[in-house]
Design a protein that fits this description.
The complex is a heterodimer of chains A (310) and B (131). Helices cover 45% and strands 14% of the residues of chain A. With 310 residues, chain A is α/β, with parallel strands linked by helices. Chain A has two domains: 3-248, P-loop containing nucleotide triphosphate hydrolases (Rossmann fold, 3-Layer(aba) Sandwich), CATH 3.40.50.300; 260-306, no CATH class. By secondary structure, chain B is an alpha/beta fold. Chain B has one domain: Cobalamin-binding domain (Rossmann fold, 3-Layer(aba) Sandwich), CATH 3.40.50.280. Chain B is built from five helices and five strands; from the N terminus they run βαβαβαβαβα. In chain B, helix 4 (100-106) links the parallel strand 4 and strand 5 (110-112). Classes of the chains: A alpha/beta (310), B alpha/beta (131). Chains A and B meet through helix 2, strand 3 and strand 4 of A and helix 1, strand 2 and helix 2 of B.
């Protein structure tokens, strides 16, 4: 099967196989991505992020169902954590999306983080491009349940939806730096619970001080009951229009592409260093010296770098 | 680290007892596999669709309802229709010995009945998954 040709013809199997190829870094993956990159850039990417158990999967399920009523082609990338000890993982986001699994207009892919920090997997960006060429008009990227600093989604999504629930902490949590700064649309899910109004007020206050040019809105929702969903879609659409009208859309993509290239360079350099047996041996020796306080880690780093030919 | 084996764990049909499926999911996770857990009351069509999109190496279903004679051959048939017979299809649950030979000829590669250790299941998957 010529995977790229089949991908262009909207072949599910080809899209799935290409994502695996990239995730596993199988031979030829970079060549495939070179071609795919040129054809991509058409899909609108919506990030769904928030703490564990906030309802990200359920909300994604409902938002996608609403967009399907408008006939949009959708892809979902759902990321869950990989065990740092065994390399295994339980990817359970599909449980909330079972109705979508028979919809031919929806493609769902679960990904483990495989050691990558930041809330996504290393291959997420490539998977977005593949599903873009596959024909998805909207790609929803659901991050792992985030803590305070997993903000990588903003570099991958055009609009980032931050899903929160009542009772996560006081108003100081809301003004801390990190994930609270990255939302373009805020959703208080499970808004039928006690404390929802107070949470909304705290988030609103935080946003009043925000220096973003477009102040994000705060929507109340009860995703399991399908409440507040249309309003959230409207907010995503408004944000999209704003990005396009102000040319920020283009600007953001330039920024994230630069970052992408830098990441590729970093990966290349790390490969050069750690796939070299001689350097690994030297690293092991120097590590002992550093532990025994014969050498300091900065000198050790300098010594290693001197032996690396790029 | 080696590329993880991807396994879809699902419960087909109308039975709400998912303890076994969760134990297996956890055991496979601890064996370093990526487990896509789809949960309860799945139709064969949902299971096979998910298996294709997730590009899994293994489909593992747990069935305790007694409907294995209908549901398991149906999943095997759909995998065949999708040209995905290379996916290793295994099942576990309360399945009478008399029913096993027929299920194995229908395309299920292994049936794990009560008393099977999780280690046996992990080993079978490791030894029989496509390379």
């Amino acid at each position: 099967m010529d995977l790229l040709q089949e991908l262009k013809k909207h072949n599910k199997r080809a899209a799935a196989k290409l994502i695996t190829m990239v995730e596993n870094r199988n031979p030829g993956y970079q060549e495939a991505l070179k071609d795919i990159h040129k054809l991509s850039g058409n899909a609108y990417v919506v990030g769904i992020t928030g703490p564990p158990g906030a309802g990200k999967s359920t909300l994604t399920d409902k938002l996608v169902k609403e967009l399907r009523k408008k006939g949009k082609q959708i892809a979902i990338i759902a990321v869950d954590p990989t065990s740092p000890f065994t390399g295994g993982s339980i990817l359970g986001d599909r449980i909330r999306m079972n109705d979508l699994s028979l919809d031919a207009g929806v493609f769902i892919r679960s990904m483990g983080t495989r050691g990558h920090l930041g809330g996504l997997s290393e291959s997420t960006k490539a998977a977005i491009k593949i599903l873009d060429v596959y024909g998805a008009e909207y790609i929803f990227v659901e991050t792992v349940g985030v803590g305070q600093s997993e903000v990588e989604i903003v570099k991958n999504a055009d609009t980032t939806v931050m899903v929160l629930v009542p009772g996560l902490g006081d108003d100081i949590q809301a003004i801390k730096a990190g994930i609270m700064e990255i939302g373009d649309v805020f959703v208080i899910n499970k808004a039928d619970r006690e404390g929802a109004n107070r949470t909304k007020a705290e988030i609103e206050m935080m946003l009043d001080f925000s220096n973003k040019e477009k102040r994000p809105s705060v929507q109340m929702a009860v995703a399991v009951d399908n409440k507040g969903i249309i309003e959230i879609i409207d907010e995503i659409e408004k944000h999209k229009e704003y990005l396009i009208d102000t040319n920020k859309f283009h600007h953001n993509r330039i920024e994230s592409t630069k970052e992408e290239i830098v990441e590729i360079i970093k990966g290349y350099i790390l490969d050069k260093i750690f796939n070299n047996q001689h350097i690994n041996e030297e690293l092991n020796q120097l590590t002992k010296d550093v532990v025994e306080r014969n050498v300091d880690p900065y000198t050790a780093g300098d010594l290693l770098l001197k032996n690396i030919k790029l | 680290m080696e590329n993880p084996i991807r396994v879809l764990v699902a419960k087909p049909g109308l039975d709400g007892h998912d303890r076994g499926a969760k134990v297996i999911a956890r055991a496979l996770r601890d064996a370093g596999m990526e487990v896509i857990y789809t949960g309860l009351r799945q139709t064969p069509e949902q299971i096979v669709n998910a298996a294709i999109q997730e590009d899994v190496d293994v489909v593992a279903v747990s069935i305790l309802s007694g409907a294995h004679g209908t549901l398991l051959p149906r999943i095997a048939e759909l995998l065949k229709q999708q040209d995905a017979e290379d996916i290793l299809f295994v099942a576990g649950g309360v399945i009478p010995d008399d029913d096993i030979p027929e299920l194995l000829t229908s395309g299920v590669k292994a049936i794990f009945t009560p008393g099977t250790t999780t280690t046996e299941t992990v080993e079978f998957i490791r030894n029989n998954v496509r390379k």
